[in-house]
Write a structure and sequence with these properties.
The chain has about 350 residues and is α+β, with helices and mostly antiparallel strands. It has two domains: about 1-185 and about 330-355, Porin chaperone SurA, peptide-binding domain (Triger factor/SurA peptide-binding fold), CATH 1.10.4030; about 205-315, Chitinase A, domain 3, CATH 3.10.50. The chain contains eleven helices and ten strands. Helix 1 (about 5-15) packs antiparallel against helix 6 and helix 4 (about 125-140) packs across helix 6 (about 160-180). The longest helix has 30 residues, at about 320-350. It starts with 5 loop residues before the first helix and ends with a strand.
């Protein structure tokens, strides 16, 4: 839920560089409005100019009901979406268009939410703004660094910081009221979903086992083996079985698998972890269902190969209990509900707005 940390993001990201880049926001006639844009993340110090970084000139990228959003606002949001751009001197060329479009949609949405908060006379208690300002100042290394920030980025005016904090808090409050509070999912709602989608919570039958396999030549069709080849493979398989039956422990069987097995699992003591029954040859599944963990099978022929299995665990197919899935299911459904409500809010706000992408 991005906007639940809207203000924290603004406070933390503003000082990534020694002199963070702060939002610029102009009205349609070019004058500064009473409240500047304070999107929750700030790009901070610009990366190496050799990187693929969009250049900032404070030119308009969009107008929302007459309020201008600039390329500085856009770049700030791009960094919020893809913070690794700072470490890698820019955005990946293949991803930059998508990141840019996502950032543009977000700054437009935030501006719409902010304007809606103003229209509805939503308020933030002065004490909350003051506390947020105190927390913001704590993110600076020293008072002198904060003074430098005010001088360079806020033109020496601490009121601009309070305006940006207030804007972020207003956006967060509206989203909490219109989206967050309405997206809660009750236990009964989760139970209804659980009962309606039983297949989702069905776990398949699985086996954890070790194997020793004797295989025909990989380059040859098993159905075209000569009688002598089949005889030689069976002889090697019988010898492998004799040694496998002599093992007493997981480790002994595993070491033997590493020594004589011819399948790809030999490099890890022949271990197969939690394999679905449907992914195993039916001949192997039939045998293992009748075995106890820690015992060694006889030879199991699968086409032209022979396999010896040592089951370590067998988990029958089962349906996960509601109690086991309740918490993650509520969280999943809540996220889905949140995104749907947020999308609907964006559509409603856009329907009443005049938006121009420059």
């Amino acid at each position: 839920m991005k906007h639940q940390v809207l203000v924290c993001g603004f406070l933390a990201a503003t000082i990534i560089g020694a002199q963070g880049q702060v939002a610029s926001h102009a009205s349609a006639n070019g004058t500064q409005p009473t409240t500047a844009n304070a999107s929750h993340a700030t790009p901070g110090k610009m990366p190496d100019p050799q990187g693929t970084v969009p250049q900032v000139s404070d030119k308009p990228v969009a107008r929302v009901n007459g309020v201008v959003l600039t390329d500085r606002d856009l770049l700030r949001e791009m960094y919020a979406i893809f913070p690794y751009a700072r470490q890698h001197n820019g955005f990946p060329r293949s991803q930059e268009p998508a990141i840019r479009q996502g950032a543009l949609e977000m700054i437009i949405f935030e501006e719409l939410v902010y304007q809606d908060a103003v229209r509805r006379n939503v308020t933030i208690p002065p004490q909350q703004i003051k506390q947020a300002e105190i927390e913001f100042q704590k993110t600076f290394v020293s008072p002198d660094q904060y003074k430098d920030f005010l001088k360079v980025e806020m033109h020496g005016n601490p009121e601009l910081v309070r305006q940006k904090i207030r804007r972020s808090l207003l956006i967060e409050k509206v989203l909490q009221m219109d989206v967050g509070d309405k997206s809660a999912v009750s236990v009964d709602e989760a139970r209804h979903y659980y009962d309606k989608h039983p297949a989702r919570f069905q776990e398949p039958e699985t086996f954890s086992m070790q194997t020793i396999s004797i295989l025909p030549p990989r380059s040859q069709d098993p159905s075209k083996l000569s009688a002598q080849q089949q005889k030689d493979i069976r002889k090697r398989a019988d010898d492998a079985l004799r040694q496998a039956k002599a093992t007493k422990t997981y480790e002994e069987f595993g070491l033997l698998a590493e020594k004589i097995s011819e399948d790809d699992y030999r490099v890890n003591m022949g271990i197969h972890k939690n394999v679905k029954a449907d992914d195993l040859p039916p001949e192997v599944v039939k045998v293992m269902r009748g075995m106890k963990p820690g015992t060694v099978s006889d030879l199991i022929q699968v086409q032209g190969a022979y396999t010896i299995v040592r089951p370590n665990a067998h988990t029958p197919a089962q349906k996960l209990s509601f109690e086991k899935v309740k918490a993650p299911l509520q969280e999943e459904l809540q996220k889905q509900k949140y995104e749907k409500l947020r999308s609907n809010l964006a559509k409603q706000l856009r329907a009443k707005a005049k938006i121009e992408v420059v």
